[in-house]
Amino acid sequence: MRIIVISDSHGNFQNLEKVIMKNTDAQWIFHLGDGELELDRFVIAHPILAPKIIHVAGNCDYDSLSPEIFTLPAIEHKIFAAHGHKYGVAGSLDRIKKAALENGCDIILYGHTHERFMTYEDGLWIMNPGSIAIPRDGQNPSFGNIDISEYGVLMNIADV
User: Fold this and answer.
1) Which residue of 49, 80, 104, 126 has the lowest C-beta tally within 10 Å?
2) 120 to 7, 35, 65, 125, 150: CA distances (angstroms)
3) Using DSSP, how many helices (H) and how many strands (E) does the chain show?
4) Measured distance CA(90)–CA(40) in Å, rounded
């Protein structure tokens, strides 16, 4: 199972479209918030890809009808996706880790900080793909790639 992870597009339709259109073979495309308007525009332009897209609301997705969290079974794993602002991810991952475990998840996807982060700790795979538009870590705009199989989980963060 291949998953593309995007976050914090903040109006950058060009980068959003570029990443998704180069990865249409992915089974799922997660958008972790702060980009609902351009994501809606993308879905209107490419409705055939809409069933692959999962979106959670970010702190800048005003009046969003999207959920704040989303969980997805993935082979022998389970994904917990949230924007992260309600879990204080800028200071600590403790609250989001606790929420993931309470939901029976072992893969955590979050955004909000605009900074790439990827680790495996305490039995959890954790990824923040950074921002596809406005990185705050001195690196290029980025997105995440996850491959899940019966053999394990492989995560990568790539430049747009």
Assistant:
1) 104
2) 20, 27, 31, 4, 17
3) 3, 10
4) 27
* Domain residue extents for the chain: 2-159
pLDDT values of the chain reduced to their tens digit, one per residue, 160 residues: 999 999 999 999 999 999 999 999 999 999 999 999 999 999 999 999 999 999 999 999 999 999 999 999 999 999 999 999 999 999 999 999 999 999 999 999 999 999 999 999 999 999 999 999 999 999 999 999 999 999 999 999 999 9
**DSSP state letters, the chain:** -EEEEE---TT-HHHHHHHHHTTTT-SEEEE-SS-HHHHHHHHHH-GGGGGGEEE---TTSTT--S-SEEEEEETTEEEEEE-SGGGTTTT-SHHHHHHHHHTT-SEEE--SS--EEEEEETTEEEEEE--SS--SSSS--EEEEEEEETTEEEEEEEE-
CB-based contact 113:90 (threshold 8 Å): yes
Query: Structure tokens of 99?
Result: 């929420």
pTM of the model: 0.97
